[in-house]
Structure to design on (181 residues):
């Protein structure tokens, strides 16, 4: 009987060592974009990125990701440009957030592809993003995704006039840090 109790105690203590699905909170993360217009180029950034990752390192294909970006907090370092970008193009009073909800994950860390529904400006499109994932020794996940968003696909008309012309394809970088719940 004593051996059975010792075996059960050892099994219970070892359970966390076996890979299992965990839920992670997305915190301290950023979303950035780069745009070029007729006169110069500029970057925008927000640190208001949240969400949840459910992951099992032994079964990456069963993972899921939900990310929300506060579009009204994007900052380009120029208050007039921020105001015009948010009011005239992104319409952040009506569409304050962008979001991504995965439907599948392919590959294994460090390089995976995440497919899901990306919503921007009230329009949802299925997209696949390449993601570089690092599983940190302290239990956190660090994920980097670089992709382009074709703004007209989301009903966003970027400036195309004699004074300013902005590219339709905007490079986006998500730098996601997730902590176990």
């Amino acid at each position: 009987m004593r051996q059975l109790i010792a075996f059960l105690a050892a099994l219970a203590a070892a359970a966390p060592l076996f890979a299992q699905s965990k839920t992670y909170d997305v915190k301290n993360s950023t979303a950035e974009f780069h745009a070029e217009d007729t006169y110069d180029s500029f970057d925008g950034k927000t640190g208001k990125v949240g969400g949840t990752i459910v992951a099992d390192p032994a079964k990456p294909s069963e993972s899921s990701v939900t990310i929300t970006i506060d579009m009204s907090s994007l900052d380009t370092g120029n208050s007039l440009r921020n105001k015009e970008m948010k009011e005239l193009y992104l319409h952040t009073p009506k569409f304050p957030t962008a979001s991504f909800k995965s439907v599948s994950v392919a590959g294994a860390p460090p390089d995976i592809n995440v497919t899901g529904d990306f919503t921007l400006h009230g329009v949802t499109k299925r997209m696949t993003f390449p993601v570089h994932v690092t599983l940190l020794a302290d239990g956190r996940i660090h994920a980097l995704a670089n992709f382009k968003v074709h703004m007209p696909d989301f009903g966003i008309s970027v400036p195309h006039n004699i004074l300013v012309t902005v590219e339709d394809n905007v490079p986006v970088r998500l730098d996601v840090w997730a902590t176990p719940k």
User: Anything to note?
Assistant: Strands lie at 22-36, 41-46, 49-55, 64-70, 97-108, 111-120, 123-135, 141-150, 169-180. The chain is about 15% helix and 50% strand. The chain has one domain: 19-180.
